[in-house]
Amino acid sequence: MKVTVITRSGREIIKGGLDLNHSATVSDLQEAIHRRCKKYYPSRQRITLPVQPGSKVRPVVLNPKKKIEDYYDGKSDHLTVIFKDLGPQVSYRTLFFWEYLGPLIIYPIFYYFPVYQYFGYGGERTIHPVQTYALYYWCFHYFKRIMETFFVHRFSHATSPLSNVFRNCAYYWTFGSLIAYYVNHPLYTPVSDLQMKIGFGFGLICQIANFYCHLILKSLRSPDGSGGYQIPLGFLFNIVTCANYTTEIYQWLGFNIATQTVAGYVFLVVAAFIMTNWALAKHRHLKKLFNGKEGRPKYPWRWVILPPFL
Amino acid sequence: MAGFLSLLRRIYLSVYNWTVFVGWFQVLYLAVKTVRESGHQHVYSAVERPLQLAQTAAILEIFHSLVGLVRSPVSATLPQIASRLYLTWFILWSFPQTQTHILVTSLVISWSITEIIRYSFFGLKEALGFAPSWLLWLRYSTFLLLYPTGITSEVGLIYVALPFIKESEKYCIRMPNKWNFSFDFFYAAILALGIYVPGSPHMYGYMLGQRKKALSKSKKE
């Protein structure tokens, strides 16, 4: 069959179109486009069905693993697809690695090296026990994240736009530096011993719970990432949709209870805000998908992210 | 019920816009009068009260945007109001040594002309349902001159205030403290100056876009 590939403004990206087998998959189409146009490797392509002009419906994105004819009721010999260039892509693993590496390296710099002299605080510096434990806790957290990125997480999309590397690194590295600056400051004021223990203890428990949540989420997807959406079950997922975000937020709360800095709490609030937006979208999507029709189960009533508030 | 609420909204916005209009008119009148009679050093003390009232009232506009009373997005009003309030309260009012500078005159004249046009434009739209095309033209053209003069005055005054900010240690939070937090108003002022570098072309470009849209739309009508 012949496939015409055009952009959203109607320009033909592949002159003369492409000739493909009737049983060709979308992935075959993407490879064919890539062969004709070296610049557009498959992960950079977004292929959608044409929409009626003026239609407000979101265009249907073609899944690389499916056959092209599945989207066209197998009826045509000549099809048109809409092509969008998503821009340079990096793998999610690469993105996460660089985001998390920053905090992992920057924080110990403030602890171990005499950087505060450049801020006008020369001279002696007494290190409080809480500052040392905070270092271990923080580094363990980001080390855990990197390990999970490579050995636990199964990603729904293989790649993310390159621009996200700059945006995400700016977020993590800036907050990491800010928190590291204040916690390791020569004039840092520690909280009581008991408060520190409660904070780190609670945080550690939440980190372990968070790891277990990630294991559960991993098992919902098959190794090639084609699992699609499933209803998460087990452990905290029985009562809250995004238990992984819940445990992550509470884990940061533990860190802040132990270290007590405005910078740390601001980070907690911003992170919670970002995760709440993700959680709401995921919860809505799951409820919409699992509506009890066509043999699908109905999504049970659950908290979205932070019982008892949301 | 919907008609009644809509009417109430119109009355409220008319009153709001015309009241603030009067405030800014006062600022312009007093500024020009004082410059001619006494010199630029006395402009601030003459306009202080109406300036503070008119400018601070603009906080309501954030609220209007949030609840959907007006169409303008919060993202456009917030940076504008933030810089105005910063200059009004955290530079001019907080550091009196800046008050006699000539840039105060250019600042309040730039601001007041802009606001007089803007508030009368919205005031007429809410009260009468339309605004004359010459006023629309003014609204989307005077910024071409007044943005540069206003921004230069703002940046200039922040710069003039810097040594006084550093010396006074006003609004600074030092460590050690229970919350392990610090704030240096001097470095925050430097950061504010830095924001003007990408911020000004962005705002100017935005207004140019708005001008194109508004003036071509009125040509079609």
The pLDDT mean of chain B sits at 93
Unreliable segments of chain A (pLDDT under 50, ≥5 consecutive)? none
Average pLDDT score of chain A: 90
Largest sheet features of chain A: 4 strands, mixed
Task: Specify Rg of chain B, calculated over alpha carbons.
Answer: 19 Å
How many strand units of chain A? 6
Unreliable stretches of chain B, pLDDT < 50, 5 or more residues? none
Secondary-structure element string of chain A: EEHEEEHHEHHHH
Taking Cα atoms only, what radius of gyration of chain A do you get, to the nearest Å?
24 Å
Helix segment count of chain B? 8
Helix-strand category of chain B: mainly alpha
User: Quaternary arrangement of the chains shown?
Assistant: heterodimer
Question: What strand line-up does the widest sheet of chain A have?
Answer: 2-1-4-3
Largest interface, C-beta closer than 8 angstroms, per-chain residues:
A-B, 11 and 8 residues
| Shape designation of chain A | elongated
Q: Strand portion of chain B, in percent?
A: under 5%
Sheet having the most strands of chain B = none
Which structural class matches the secondary elements of chain A?
Answer: alpha+beta
Spatial shape of chain B: globular
Q: What letter string, H or E per element, gives the SSE order of chain B?
A: HHHHHHHH
Which descriptors apply to this entry?
heterodimer, A: 310 residues, 48% helix, B: 221 residues, mainly alpha
SSE layout and pairings?
The complex is a heterodimer of chains A (310) and B (221).
Chain A: E1 2-7, E2 18-19, H1 26-36, E3 45-48, E4 78-85, E5 89-91, H2 92-112, H3 129-151, E6 159-161, H4 163-183, H5 193-219, H6 243-259, H7 262-289
Parallel strand pairs in A: 1-4
Antiparallel strand pairs in A: 1-2, 3-4, 5-6
Chain B: H1 2-37, H2 43-57, H3 59-66, H4 74-93, H5 102-128, H6 133-139, H7 143-168, H8 185-220
